[in-house]
Amino acid sequence: MTDTITAAITLPTPQRRIVTAVPGPKSLALHERRLAAVPVGVNSALPAYIARAHGAILVDVDGNQFLDFGSGIGVTTIGHTDDAVVAAASEQLKRLTHAAFTISPYEGYVRVAELLAEHTPGTHAKKTVLQNSGAEAVENGVKIARKYTGRGGIAVLDHAYHGRTSLTMAMTFKAMPYASGFGPFPGDIYRTSSSYPFHDGLSGAAAAKKTIVHLEKSVGASDLACLIVEPIQGEGGFQVPAEGYLPALQEWCTANGIVFIADEIQSGMARTGKYFASEHFGIVPDLVLSAKGIAGGLPLSAITGRAEIMDAAHPGGLGGTFGGNPVSCAAAIAVFDEIESKGLLGRATVIGEVLRAGLLELQKKYDIIGDVRGIGAMQAIELVVPGTHEHNSAALGKIVAFAAGQGVLLLTAGTHGNVLRFLPSLAMSDDQLRDGLGVLDDALAAL
Ligand SMILES: *Cc1c(COP(=O)(O)O)cnc(C)c1O
């Protein structure tokens, strides 16, 4: 059956607009079909079925328009159905949709590798492997680090999120919902403290010392292949580490022959006003992982790193059928072009300023906002029991539901489910941002 329900929906205007209950009758009908055909393990935050999208607006099958503060979890960073991405991918679809780079290579893959070498931190010689998903990028980063070092240990941080494959869910901090009941898990993964200034109150140097001492005592530096960090933690709650924390970890890794990996799957690709968030902290990771925003909505991920580390894997040791699909590569090249030609790094910075100013205003008004944090178009608020640092997850669900009913799509995050995160596309206008902040104000007032 073709999707006759969605065919009638036209391109959105740039405003939110609610014309039915949310979810509306057509979404509810689709939801019935979905419940019969799709397992409950896959759920949807807001079961309004989307028919079209453009810029910062999603339109559902009932014609409701949502202002999108999630961007499909930070994927459509340059905007939904960006014209240049659509044109490049459409053109590529007609020329070559698949050849398997490990069988028959093509230029797009090489071009994406060149662009990543140019735009990831550091001026050293770099090489890139392309895959499909973020979890695959993490898996391959670990493979390469192990082969290069001849060691097994993987160090990860509290509150980290690295994916849902066997290895990456074992590397992820939060058991529920990601890992609970899905074991046994691969071994040789060592978890240690992160920097979470709102809760630990530690300076970067003190937090780094804690992280490092724990690893030295519980594993020993000489058994570690890699330490993987998200420069700004994503699912964990947008924790921005204290100043000096990440450089201290990098220094320790370098001194001990440990590959320092930045998982920039959520924080990279212009999200924070730089190509990669690592740049804000003055770190130059050995390996940088990209995915989410890299191809404007098409599946693509990348492992970019020091040439000598990347070349440690033997010929044939890296690959995969779909990795670096030509259509995804064409879209990624268009994303890099758009970031440059539209000045989107600057736009991400401005969006950050507008959002942050608005969120700080709301913090003055509502004492359940304990913390406002983030960089660029990656901002969050942490909800607390007023007057304490205790997590307040009960309020979060109410805010998200209220906003959805008003046509604003908000995402949650945080180990304790008490963080509201904002990942607007860089196509979101100041008017749209302020409109969304107004709805958030109403949602907080209605609590
Ligand atoms: C989303 C995410 C992943 C996993 O990416 P998938 O494409 O979902 O496999 C890994 N790391 C971080 C930081 C992420 O945000």
Task: Provide key terms for this protein.
single chain; 447 residues; Aspartate Aminotransferase, domain 1; 2 domains; seven-stranded mixed sheet; four-stranded mixed sheet; 38% helix; 16% strand; binds pyridoxal-5'-phosphate
Notes on the protein architecture:
- With 447 residues, the protein is α/β, with parallel strands linked by helices.
- It has 2 domains: 4-81 and 344-446, Aspartate Aminotransferase, domain 1 (Alpha-Beta Complex); 85-341, Type I PLP-dependent aspartate aminotransferase-like (Major domain) (Aspartate Aminotransferase, domain 2).
- 38% of the residues lie in helices and 16% in strands.
- The chain contains 15 helices and 15 strands.
- Strand 14 and strand 15 form a beta hairpin.
- The longest helix is centred in the C-terminal third of the chain and has 22 residues, at 344-365.
- The mean pLDDT is 97.
- The structure holds pyridoxal-5'-phosphate (PLP).
- Pyridoxal-5'-phosphate is lined by residues 133-135, 138, 161-163, 230, 234, 263, 265-266, 291-292.
Q: Classify the fold: give the CATH topology of the largest domain.
A: Aspartate Aminotransferase, domain 2
Question: So what's the oligomer here?
Answer: single chain
Structural class: alpha/beta
What is the strand arrangement across the widest sheet?
A: 4-10-9-8-7-5-6
Number of domains: 2
